[in-house]
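$ ./design --mode recover --in tokens.txt
reading tokens...
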């Protein structure tokens, strides 16, 4: 379980990276990205940044593009946050939203089937 300090740094990094992508990125691909989470290692040397995108681009290609921009983003994070050492950033595509939507559609389908069954039993 991360300490309060690590959790605060993760939260701050998430906020700063989001603003960097929205306000300072020139690449249109980076502007389509939404940061969904950030996990900083206990020694503050690495950070996994989870993101999703509304872009039509393939997940692997998108992940590759964002990771190529990671050193640039890390430099801007270093300017905006007062940290002794800015963690190395690794961007990971977050499938949790897709997964949740798929589960929701399955549950909805089951409810529809049960509703149809109950309607047929009353006839």
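writing sequence...
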């Amino acid at each position: 379980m991360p300490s309060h300090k690590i959790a605060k740094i993760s939260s701050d990094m998430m906020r700063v990276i989001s603003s960097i992508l929205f306000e300072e990125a020139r690449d249109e691909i980076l502007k389509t990205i939404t940061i969904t989470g950030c996990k900083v290692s206990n020694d503050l040397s690495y950070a996994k940044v989870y993101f999703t995108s509304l872009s039509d681009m393939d997940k692997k290609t998108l992940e590759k593009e964002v990771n190529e921009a990671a050193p640039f983003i890390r430099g801007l994070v270093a300017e905006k946050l007062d940290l002794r050492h800015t963690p190395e950033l690794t961007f990971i595509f977050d499938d949790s939203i897709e997964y949740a939507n798929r589960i929701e559609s399955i549950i909805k389908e089951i409810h529809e089937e049960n509703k149809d069954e109950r309607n047929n039993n009353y006839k």
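exit 0
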